[in-house]
Design goal:
Layout lengths: L2 H8 L9 H11 L3 E2 L18 E2 L5 H8 L2 E6 L7 H10 L2 E4 L5 H4 L9 H12 L3 E4 L19 H18 L6 E6 L12 H6 L2 H13 L4 E6 L10 H16 L6 E4 L2 E3 L6 H13 L3 E10 L7 H19 L5 E6 L8 H6 L15 H10 L3
Parallel strand pairs: 3-4, 3-11, 4-5, 5-6, 6-7, 7-8, 8-10, 9-10, 10-11
Antiparallel strand pairs: 1-2
Helix pairs in contact: 3-14, 7-9, 11-12, 12-14
Length: 380
């Protein structure tokens, strides 16, 4: 979009009570101008929002994150990369990609003798073409997206062999192209114990350490993360799970397991979210173990916030701002990934009903939440 139209939509910051003009100048003072990439569409869609005009980085979360040395990412689905609005926004605003589903076991390995890498390859190529890092997600997660051929009818030895083959093939294929992996996803249940799933039932809690070791063998240079939800804060109703995750990763480190960090998912509602100070305290204790920390799947639901849409968008802006502002000040915190970036495509609508949880609206225009993140990145 041209500069005048961008600044027109930038004025939504006024809804949030922020001085958008000062925000833009503040970012511009910190970084040089960048070339906004243009993605050609290969579909029959009419695309009108493309440009090759050099814009100042005041138009880009990515540039603000680059100045801070932060990875700022989004979960992506390859089928949308052929929509130029989607691709252009993604390339302009983010420097870090996570495949939403394309690298999960079921989609990538649907049958014992069949692999389907095309969608994951497309994401990896897009990232390479636009100088973005990739975090693979999720190597071991038996709650969802598992293929029907991996079952509890397998013997312990058979499941272990299948796991080894899957990890070495998947991770080995992207060696040197994937910066980090969510190795094990959601191994801890809501009560703070190990979640009762296929791998735990067959292999015991040692499957977590085994998975990390196998991924490390397949790609010794990749950063390896444990990833979970509702484990963000050291007080409140999330405390038990948060503490259990801390105990788990501390034990892995003590046993010499190659784990490098923890992902705090941060799927939250604007009416019920962890206190920023408690999230910061959790990051500090994880970093004290020598681990890196990232917000790995952030979205903020607003449908239960009372009031008209402008009021709800303001509350959402404040939540995004306050949480990210405290996290990026902590030693060892390296990345924020949003679970999508446009309200046109969000898992929240399918699972919880129509909502507006992300930074861009359905027309790819920045919402007040966008400016909340921008101000957090530039220290306002």
């Amino acid at each position: 979009m041209d500069r005048r139209r961008f600044l027109k939509y930038a004025s939504v910051g006024a809804i949030a009570g922020v001085a958008t003009g000062y925000c833009l100048r503040d970012v511009a003072d910190r970084c040089a101008s960048i070339q906004i990439p243009t993605i050609a569409t290969t579909t029959t869609q009419t695309v009108t929002e493309t440009t090759t005009e050099p814009l100042s980085c005041s138009a880009s979360l990515r540039a603000a994150a680059d100045v801070r040395g932060l990875l700022l990412g989004a979960a992506v689905a390859p089928e949308y990369l052929h929509d130029a609005r989607y691709a252009n926004t993604l390339a302009r605003e983010f420097n870090f990609l996570t495949p939403e589903n394309a690298m999960k076991w079921g989609p990538v390995h649907p049958a014992p003798d069949r692999w389907y890498f095309d969608p994951a390859d497309e994401i990896a190529k897009f990232a390479s073409d636009h100088q973005m890092k990739v975090k693979g997600h999720a190597v071991i997660w038996d709650k969802m997206q598992m293929p029907s051929w991996v079952t509890s009818q397998m013997s312990t030895d058979e499941l272990r062999r299948v796991m080894q083959e899957h990890i070495h093939t998947l991770v080995g294929r992207y060696r040197g192209r994937v910066y980090a992996w969510d190795v094990v996803n959601e191994a801890v249940d809501d009560a703070g114990g190990f979640r009762k799933g296929l791998f735990f039932e067959k292999l015991g809690e040692g499957y977590v350490a085994e998975a990390f070791q196998l991924v490390h063998e397949a790609d010794p240079d990749a950063l390896l993360f444990y990833n979970d939800y509702n484990a963000e804060a050291t007080t409140g109703w999330r405390k038990d799970k948060c503490d259990r995750v801390y105990v788990l990763v501390k034990k892995l480190l003590a046993n010499g397991v190659p784990i490098h960090g923890v992902g705090l998912q941060m799927h939250i509602s604007a009416t019920d979210y962890p206190k920023p100070v408690d999230v910061a305290a959790n990051i500090r204790r994880l970093a004290a173990l020598g681990l890196k920390v990232n917000i790995s799947e952030m979205d903020v639901q607003i449908k239960d916030v009372p009031g008209e849409l402008p009021k709800r968008l303001e509350v959402q802006r404040q939540v995004y701002h306050d949480l990210i502002a405290v996290c990026i000040k902590e030693q060892g915190f390296i990345a924020v990934t949003f679970w999508g970036f446009t309200d046109a495509h969000s898992w929240i609508d399918e699972w919880f009903g129509q909502d507006d949880p992300l930074l861009f609206d359905e027309n790819y225009q920045p919402k007040p939440a966008y400016w909340g993140v921008m101000n957090a990145l530039v220290g306002r």
